[in-house]
Amino acid sequence: MNILLTGATGYIGKRILPLLVNKGHHVVCCVRDKSRFNPPSSLKENISVIEIDLLDEASLSKIPPDIDVAYYLVHSMSSSQNYAELEHKSAQNFREALSNTRVNQVIYLSGIVNESNLSKHLESRKKVEDELSKGEYNFTCLRAGIIIGSGSASFEIMRDLVEKLPVMIAPKWLLTRCQPIGISDVLKFLINCISVKETYNRNFDIGCNDVLTYKEMLLELARVRNLTRKIWTVPVMSPNLSSYWLYFVTSTSYKLARSLVSSMKVEVVCRDHEINQILGIEPISYTQALIRAFDKIENNEIVSSWKDSYSSSGITIDISEFVNVPEYGCFKDKRTRKVESRDSTVEKIWSIGGKNGWYFGTWLWKIRGFLDKLVGGVGLRRGRTNQNTIFAGDSLDFWRVLYANKEEGRLLLFAEMKLPGDAWLEFRIDGDNLIQTATFRPLGLYGRLYWFAVLPFHGIIFEGLLSELSQSDK
Predict the structure, then answer these.
(1) Distance between CA atoms of 291 and 182, rounded to whole angstroms?
(2) Contacts of 17 (CB under 8 A, 6+ apart)
């Protein structure tokens, strides 16, 4: 079959793509920015890529007419204040564009929406579902609650809370019930419902058999990690205070924290498990999903992470606009050092950040990350998805990867921290030399004052970093 996959660079999209190819399908991957799409070379013969923007109706004409099945895996919780209107418009444009194709089935992953009072996020998901259901095709909607898997936002936030806080004074919404589901089962449901007529023009709730409060989920995660944790809930904690609590303790952005807090007040429990019988799937338990997630983390096998989406930083950029580092009106800190071993230096560069830190003055980087958090930035807590690989579009602490070519020996990062301007950090091997360049394009007088204020620290941090990177491992 020819399958259209929207959200191909997203958390679910990256994971379902190889599974669809392994099933023998040809997959048309829809992306907004091709520079962010880095599929394994083993898949390239069985995929094609089109660059579209769901808010740009003209770009949707690129969708080929011979599509059999389409996945709609696009959503946002925090990219803008009016994201609900944008999501509805995107769904409408997509539905209308598919009228020019032969598509037989559209599959949408939504959220469980069984309560009368929904959060803004869940209301938006429901409106998208309603819009997509109007199309002249068979529509299948799968509704999930909390998805447990390495790299999922919900899992990583719970992990942050448990691993960082031995004692928690938490909001009362930790007593809200939910029905989680492992990422492996989400993918099974999404794939197994292809061309199954019993799923046409219907919606289904998917979840494991465990119905737990968020508090119970946190305590079970602590047990799996062999940690002793105490949690007390308090009856009064404003949404703002709850959001700040999540923001400062976890790696989430403040906007995403606000959306999560709003949604966590709503019970997300399955109506029934009819879809399990239709597709012959028995979901694993919450505990099993946790164990699998930690196995992936420990083996450095995280396929995708929510942190690589732009919602993790609260900003939206087009990578192609920043790959060419500007010269005019910029301050630069350029340093060159002869390398002892090219291969060793490249490996160090490709392992920078995350658990490995920054080789020199990591505590200074941590202070900078903490200060960034205080003013509403991302800080250093996002780390990196995989400690050995880097692709354009990945998050790397408070940077975004713009360009990464290991053979060329060039890595270009763009700062997503709160700054009075734009900042780039580039590492490039030229012959036997490592060239390290920090570029800052100031915004107004404050930006210029900022650059001169941090310049003394650059002399320490960047010189030390360059020295460490240029030395070979002994």
Answers:
(1) 10
(2) 5, 8, 27, 29, 39, 43, 47
Give the residue carrying structure tokens 């959060």: 119
Q: Where are the alpha helices (DSSP H) in 225-361?
A: 239-249, 254-263, 274-279, 286-298, 342-349
| Cα 407 from Cα 429, distance rounded (Å) | 10
Three-state SS sequence of 159-206: HHHHHHCCEEEEEHHHHCEECCEEHHHHHHHHHHCCCCHHHCCEEEEE
Q: Is the pTM of this model over 0.90?
A: no
Q: What is the pLDDT of residues 221-274, one digit of tens each?
A: 999 999 999 988 887 666 666 666 677 777 666 666 666 766 777 888 999 999
Distance CA(421)–CA(196), nearest Å, equals 52
The pair phi, psi for residue 271, each rounded to 5°, is -70, -45
Mean pLDDT of 105-129: 88
Cβ(259)–Cβ(121) below 8 Å: yes
| Among the listed residues 246, 397, 377, 408, the one whose alpha carbon sits nearest the alpha carbon of residue 314 | 377
- Tokens encoding 261: 């807090």
Distances (CA, A) of 404 to 187, 359, 393: 29, 19, 9
Cβ contacts of 352 within 8 Å, gap of 6 or more: 358, 359, 396, 411
Q: Environment class of residue 174 by beta-carbon count within 10 Å: exposed (0-12), middle (13-18) or buried (19+)?
A: buried
